[in-house]
Design goal:
Elements: H1 19-40, H2 45-52, H3 56-65
Helix pairs in contact: 1-2, 2-3
Amino acid sequence: AQSAGYENSDRPNIRNLAPENLYETIKEKEKTEIMEALMRSGGNISKAARDLKMNRQTLVYRMKKYNITR
């Protein structure tokens, strides 16, 4: 029987969404967003933080976490 409009071959493979893969995907997306915001702000951390709708201190913490320099 089909479910959710998928044929068996079209059904997403949930095994590819194991927690470690999902975690890595989220980390990479966050790192990319931070780097893009810093580029848009010309390296200004306060402006980048506002753009990302986060506290400046949180952005500095995440920059250290991901080893991002301005």
